[in-house]
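Much of what follows relies on a compact textual record of a protein's fold. A record is reproduced here so that you can trace the correspondence yourselves:
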Amino acid sequence: MVSREDKRAALHEKLQLLRSITNSHAVNKTTIIVDASKYISELKQKVERLNRDISAAQSSNHQNPLPMVTVETLEKGFLINVFSENSCPGLLVSLLEAFEELSLNILEARVSCTDSFRLQAVGGGEDEEQNESIDAQVVKQAVLQAIKNWSESGDQQE
């Protein structure tokens, strides 16, 4: 039979796990749970926003073959996603040049450009001050401009 102290210890361990997952700095149980609830709401909003972006990209994909772009702010930098159903030859070079112009260091990246184009990159400035001076909207605009320049240059022939 599980003792009351074992149950209390298990509950405390689960609360601490919940606290770390949600980046909560709370110390009491109620506040940890409130922070977790807020975190879940934020995640739901992100999912809804991404679903809207995907729907908008799919509906406009027939009229506009340009890739879909999302940029999220991370603790130290940005998560940049670029997706197109087309392979987009030459686009990666244009995007890397845009990152270089922003002095954005790519810390980690996954790229696929066989049948479709997909880039997922984590990037940040060289120091924290630089990260604070660049926001997600600036990064997104730079990526969109790089895509526009690429599409207008004629590099996208397959």
User: Anything to note?
Assistant: The first helix runs from residue 4 to 21.
